[in-house]
Design goal:
It is a single chain. The protein is mostly helical and 41 residues long. Helices cover 76% and strands 0% of the residues. The chain has one domain. It has helices at residues 5-17, 20-27, 31-40.
Length: 41
C-alpha cells in the first residue's frame, strides 16, 4: 500500500478526535472506511 495524503489526514483526524468514529465523522467518511485504512497502515 502506498501511503498518501488522504491516509495521513485520516490518521490525523482519528488522533485529534480521540476515536475512529469521531475522526470519521470529522472527515465525512464511514467508520468502516477509516478503520480499514488504519489497519493497513
Amino acid at each position: 500500500m502506498k501511503i498518501d495524503a488522504k491516509h495521513l489526514a485520516q490518521l490525523s483526524a482519528v488522533i485529534e478526535a480521540g476515536s475512529v468514529t469521531e475522526g470519521a465523522n470529522l472527515l465525512g467518511l464511514s467508520q468502516t472506511a477509516v478503520s480499514r485504512t488504519l489497519s493497513t497502515l
